[in-house]
Amino acid sequence: MIDLSRPGLIVFDMDSTLITIECIDEIAGLAGRKAEVSAVTEAAMRGQLDFAASLQQRVQVLAGISEQQLRTLFDPIPVTPGAAELVGWFKQLGWRTAVVSGGFTWFTGPLREMLHLDADIANQLEWYEQQLTGRVSLPIVDAQVKADSLRKLAQRWHIDVANTIAVGDGANDIPMLEAAGLGVAFCAKPALKAIADIVIESPDLMLLKTQLEQRVNQHGKS
């Protein structure tokens, strides 16, 4: 049982969770190949493809895109409704907040600053002369690394893993949700919903606050 009165940690996926887009699909759109990359992303999120291999395949398409082009994608940051309010609520409770993403630090960094998150962990795009090379630095932040990151962050801040929450939308979030004390599927693929403790179908992250408060009230009455 999550105890909101004790120190805790909530870890969010980024793409289609904290923000409303899949960044890699939007970057591919700059190269005129969004539909092609989106199809691969969708299959990976359903758990039909190996995440690391599919990521490397998709990043190859991005070679030659400039830093200036990339800046246009986060202007403004397409934050999911309720995200800022939910993070603020957790911070008032004294909880730590983080984004752990199979996406890219190029996007998680600004998002961390905007939402005042405590940490961001994601993949590193490789650059040469202010253009993407079409490669991503190793090791890749895949499903297992996301789960391991939740545990390491909890350890760093001396938080009981049982008092952690993970929020995601795709199959690559399954190990992270399973590692957390409470797993939340947000507008998620069927594979993730199947293992989640809480399923939120509407695109408003503040619905998680409502769900948690209901659980606390029900536990208090039992």
What fold name goes in the CATH topology slot?
Answer: Rossmann fold
Distance between the termini: 13 Å
Low-confidence stretches: none
- Rg calculated over all Cα atoms: 17 Å
Protein name: Phosphoserine phosphatase
Pfam families: Hydrolase
Enzyme class: hydrolase
Organism: Pseudidiomarina salinarum
Describe, in plain words, how this protein is organized in 3D.
There is one protein chain. By secondary structure, the protein is of the alpha/beta class. It has a single domain, classed as Rossmann fold (3-Layer(aba) Sandwich). The chain contains 10 helices and 8 strands. The strands form 2 sheets. Strands 3-2-1-6-7-8 form a 6-stranded parallel β-sheet, with helices on both faces. Helix 6 links the parallel strand 2 (96-104) and strand 3 (119-123).
Which structural traits does this protein have?
single chain, 222 residues, alpha/beta, Rossmann fold, 6-stranded parallel β-sheet, two-stranded antiparallel ribbon, 10 helices, 8 strands, 18% strand, globular
Strand-helix topology:
Layout: E1 9-12, H1 23-30, H2 34-45, H3 51-60, H4 67-71, H5 83-92, E2 96-104, H6 105-115, E3 119-123, E4 125-128, E5 131-136, H7 143-156, E6 164-168, H8 174-179, E7 182-186, H9 190-193, E8 198-200, H10 206-221
Parallel strand pairs: 1-2, 1-6, 2-3, 6-7, 7-8
Antiparallel strand pairs: 4-5
Helix pairs in contact: 1-2, 2-3
